[in-house]
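>> Question from a student workshop board

For tomorrow's exercise we were told to take the sequence and the ligand below, predict the bound structure, and bring the output to class. My setup keeps failing. Could a helper post the expected result so I can at least see what it should look like? The ligand is iron/sulfur cluster.
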Amino acid sequence: MYKKQLGNTGIEVTPVGFGVLAIGSTQLNLSIEDGADIIRYALEKGINFLDTAQYYRTYPYIREALKGTSYDPVIVSKCLDSDYDDMKYAVEEARRELDRDLIDIFLLHEVRSEQDFNYRLGAWEYLQEAKARGLVKAIGVSTHHVDVAELVAENPEADVLFPLINFKSMGIRKGHGFGTKEEMAEAIKKAAGNGKGVFAMKVFGGGILINDYRKALEYAFSLDGVHSLMIGFGNRDEVDRIIEMVEGTLDPNYTPDLSNKKIWIEQGDCEGCGNCIERCPNEALYVNDIGLAYVDHSICIRCGYCAPVCPSRAIIMIG
Ligand code: SF4
Ligand code: SF4
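>> Workshop helper replied:
Here is what the output should look like for this input. Compare the format with yours to find the bug.
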């Protein structure tokens, strides 16, 4: 598979990467062996870009996939914390658990506003230090927010931007409301124009747009300034179809297996603590009239972020 320069980072990536969140405990919850098998298959097929995060707890899959192989993919990880010391711990943890001296790309994970970015300046300071010390090659920000993407586009210290975008604007935020794909596309273009590497997430809106497989991918590939798309693969066939799409050999009549998966809250287990509601980046969770959480499936993008904060493990993916 061909590769592209990721902005001015000096890193080359394939036009599609593997979002490892999909195989982890908050989504498909595959065994380490089964998840590692899909990663290894994707690498074998030429994909060279893997996305993970401290929060996803998916480092063991990557480590297992690479064990005994000569594959040397570009790995991006990220951390939700705000403090210098917590980010230092996260980078060290990634180096240790992935068994790598250098992490290619490390990000502030899911920055929600300029205020949030400023609140996390300690963590940002450590990322700059880690880069200067050669522990990390490139640094940046992942975000669902147009305002943050615009901020990163102009930030001279940021090497990369990892924004959410899809043809239906699902999950794009701006301030306290919703943003549009046009606004995010403009921020992406500006970032790439300023030399940032850009890789996009949620091009299928967390699986909900999978019905429009071609349209979703064609839209994302057409975006000016996007160097790669992170896709969450759940099996080998999904890897094959994406590669055919990239190579232009996908059966024109291809329609994916419709995923019936959805986030589900076991009302019998829910304690009504509200953690998930606070954690949801998309305001898709509410309290119902008996004080328990429920999901608005028309808004939920199945990112899986809510599941790990549930103290009673009431949040599951079904289908
Ligand atoms: S309810 Fe919110 S946090 Fe949970 S999967 Fe849906 S969008 Fe993500
Ligand atoms: S985090 Fe779990 S227990 Fe708390 S409100 Fe959400 S589903 Fe219920």
